[in-house]
Design goal:
single chain, 241 residues, mainly alpha, 2 domains, two-stranded antiparallel sheet, 10 helices, 2 strands, 72% helix
Length: 241
């Protein structure tokens, strides 16, 4: 029997979402699966209580650096996009005014992205309050996946996450990471135990599909393989018998 060992908490959230929706009918074909379904739902609900930025078990300094890189990336993108518009010849006056408004309100200078984490977090609060007034201007500027409002929102949200991380005591973060690890270990154990008894039921009931184990646990197997081979699995789907 293939056992789960390497799955992260994020993998488990993704795998359980798939198991309890796309694969729920296959799980419910077994009597044991029906019994374990509620237990797995409880574990999935507990995962939602773990902050996303702590679910991976990373220390606060590493999370700060990662979040700052995201914040600075969006800020740089907004700056250079507006810079391109400002150098565009024959630009409509109303568009130019909108771009200047965006630049002045969000990122007048790239030097602001070299500020301390605390200063960037404080600036994010000011930018957040400016977003409603900028909405119409931001919506006028298209970018991949939407409008400049998407980038501006992500920029501000990353700054807000910096503030949240700065306010978090190191020992509190350690406690939450310990809780996330406990939940991960318990969920992997529950999945492995469920798989064992489901295989026993499949073996004892000839009317059940012979490949039902794969239909139930196939995507979790893909995620496990990803952790072992560093190759992202394809989108989830039910395997044919």
């Amino acid at each position: 029997m293939r056992r789960f060992q390497m799955l992260t908490l994020g993998d488990l959230k993704q795998g359980l979402d798939d198991l309890l929706t796309t694969r729920q009918a296959a799980l419910a074909l077994t009597r044991v699966g029906k019994a374990y379904e509620d237990l797995l739902k409880q574990k999935r609900a507990q995962m939602d209580a773990v902050p996303n930025e702590l679910g991976g078990g990373k220390p606060v300094p590493e999370l700060l650096a990662t979040t700052d890189a995201e914040h600075d990336g969006y800020g740089t993108a907004i700056y250079y996009l507006t810079e391109a518009y400002l150098h565009l010849p024959n630009i409509d006056t109303d568009v130019l005014e909108a771009i200047m408004h965006i630049r002045a309100s969000l990122i007048p200078s790239l030097e602001q992205l070299r500020d301390s984490y605390a200063d960037e977090a404080e600036a994010a609060l000011r930018r957040k309050s400016a977003l409603p007034a900028l909405a119409a201007d931001l919506m006028r500027v298209p970018v991949v996946g939407g409008s400049l409002q998407n980038w501006a929102t992500a920029f501000v949200e990353a700054g807000a996450r910096l503030q949240k991380l700065l306010e978090q005591p190191e020992d509190d973060g350690a406690t939450q990471r310990k809780e996330a690890q406990r939940l991960r270990v318990e969920t992997i154990g529950l999945l492995n135990h469920a798989r064992t008894v489901i295989l026993d039921e499949i073996a004892s009931r000839p009317t059940l599909p012979r490949h039902l184990d794969t239909q139930i646990f196939g995507y979790l197997d893909d995620l496990e393989k990803f952790r072992s081979t560093n190759a992202r699995p394809s989108a989830p789907g039910i395997e044919e018998t």
